[in-house]
Design a protein that fits this description.
GO terms for molecular function: 2-oxoglutarate-dependent dioxygenase activity; iron ion binding. This protein is an alpha+beta fold. Helices cover 18% and strands 25% of the residues. The longest helix is centred in the N-terminal third of the chain and has 17 residues.
């Protein structure tokens, strides 16, 4: 079965050994350097329960920037960090692939360009990137969601590339997906509210079906490809081992990208392809 047909039927692909161990290590090293150099003026917390997010300006202006977001459980009641900053960051986003040369090179390869074309993107644009740490012991759960909720286009073209930079296991919070779940349609959109902040706009009040989810325990160097409509989640990291991953989201430049999407890019740094 071809990759394209398998993807169309299942809503995801698992491609072991897609990137080398050295490439994974280079990304990890650069991310750790960025965290070491980060001196927070704003402490923005990434809540994994998106329905309860209170969107702040730091988050809303991150579409064409490199921003750092802390784990929910990183702080004591008095506001001090429970552990070193390097072990307290949830993720870095959302324009690493455009602003950091190491991430740019990792994200823009002939192999990825060919895969995007094979899966139907006629004018692929690299819209968003995230470095996800899934820290030992405090790496939070990410509840079930569809990526197209946050990166909506008409027609829907969102495509996710998720790279395991370390082995992902049940204990350290691997991905879970619902095979064929992308066929149930988009349930809601995450948009900017006219009065400021963000809101979920319900498109289909039927609850997101989450039965029959399966875990994806994958080795370092694996690429998991996710359909924008596919329900997926990840568990909390209950182990002493981190689960670093790099996530890259693409859309098709031929589709319409609504102005009320939460993620905005400056005209000075528009999304570009490979």
């Amino acid at each position: 079965m071809s990759r394209a047909r398998d993807f169309e039927q299942q809503g995801f692909l698992i491609l072991p050994g897609f990137v080398s161990g050295n490439s994974c290590d280079a990304l990890k090293h650069r991310a750790e350097e960025l965290v070491t150099g980060f001196q927070p003026e704003t402490r923005s917390i990434f809540t994994t329960h998106e329905q309860t997010r209170t969107s702040d300006a730091y988050f809303l202006s991150s579409g064409d920037q490199i921003r750092f977001f802390f784990e929910e459980d990183a702080f004591r009641p008095d506001g001090s960090l429970r552990q070193p900053q390097a072990l307290s960051i949830n993720k870095i986003g959302h324009a690493l692939h455009d602003l950091e040369p190491v991430f740019d090179r990792f994200s823009r390869t002939p192999e990825l360009a060919a895969l995007a074309a094979e899966l139907g993107l006629t004018r692929p644009l690299l819209l968003q990137s995230m470095y996800i740490f899934k820290q030992p012991h405090i790496g939070g759960e990410v509840t079930s969601h569809q990526d197209a909720t946050f990166l909506f286009t008409e027609p829907s073209t969102c495509l996710g590339f998720w790279f395991a930079l370390e082995d992902a296991t049940l204990e350290n919070g691997c991905l879970w997906v619902q095979p064929r779940g992308h066929r149930q349609g988009l349930k809601k959109r995450f948009v900017r509210a006219p009065e400021g902040g963000t809101v979920f706009r319900v498109l289909d009040a039927t609850p997101l079906a989450e039965e029959d989810m399966v875990p994806l325990e994958v080795k370092k160097g694996t690429l998991v490809v996710l359909h924008g409509m596919l329900p997926h989640r990840s568990g909390a990291n209950t182990s002493s081992t981190s689960r670093h991953a790099y996530s890259l989201h693409l859309i098709d430049g031929s589709a319409t990208y609504p102005e009320d999407n939460w993620l905005r890019r400056s005209p000075a740094l528009p999304p570009r392809g490979f």
